[in-house]
């Protein structure tokens, strides 16, 4: 089963990370790199996203598309990265995520494998 892990940073997490000295930050990033290496056989695509301020949002529910700078929601949590995983089931995905050493929130979302009909 394929899932996408959405890594979500909170304002508090970002402040703590930004407040780390170079050695602490290097140690934290090494833990994340080790996690990715440990689970490499289950990982597909993924990556770190640029800051939410770099986003462009298109709203399609108001007649004409409305394009704005910035994220689509204002909030204290921002998706900062993602990874596609291929695992047996949700339980295996949960076992992986329980060991995630990075940001404090991970959303696990199954991929919809069939395509929607084109109209």
Give the helices and strands, then pairings:
Elements: E1 2-10, H1 11-18, H2 22-38, E2 43-48, E3 56-59, E4 66-69, E5 77-86, H3 90-97, E6 105-110
Structure description:
It is a single chain. This protein has 119 residues and is of the alpha+beta class. The chain has a single domain, classed as 2-Layer Sandwich (Alpha-Beta Plaits). The chain contains 3 helices and 6 strands. The chain has a 4-stranded antiparallel sheet with strand order 2-5-1-6. The relative contact order is 0.33.
Notable characteristics:
single chain, two-stranded antiparallel sheet, 3 helices, 6 strands, alpha+beta, 119 residues, four-stranded antiparallel sheet, Alpha-Beta Plaits
Order of helices and strands: EHHEEEEHE
Q: What is the second-level CATH architecture?
A: 2-Layer Sandwich
Percentage of residues assigned to helices: 25-40%
Kindly identify the CATH topology: Alpha-Beta Plaits
Annotation field: number of helices:
3
Radius of gyration: 17 Å
Could you tell me the mean pLDDT? 87
> What's the arrangement of strands in the largest beta sheet?
2-5-1-6
């Amino acid at each position: 089963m394929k899932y996408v892990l959405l890594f979500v940073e909170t304002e508090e997490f970002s402040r703590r990370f930004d407040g780390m000295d170079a050695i602490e930050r290097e140690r934290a990033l090494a833990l994340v790199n080790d996690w990715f290496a440990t689970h490499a056989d289950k990982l597909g695509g993924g990556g770190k996203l640029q800051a939410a301020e770099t986003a462009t949002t298109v709203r399609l529910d108001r007649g004409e598309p409305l394009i704005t700078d910035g994220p689509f929601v204002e909030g204290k949590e921002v998706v900062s990265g993602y990874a596609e995983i291929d695992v047996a089931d949700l339980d295996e995905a949960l076992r992986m995520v329980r060991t995630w050493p990075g940001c404090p929130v991970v959303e696990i979302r199954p991929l919809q494998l069939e395509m929607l009909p084109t109209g």
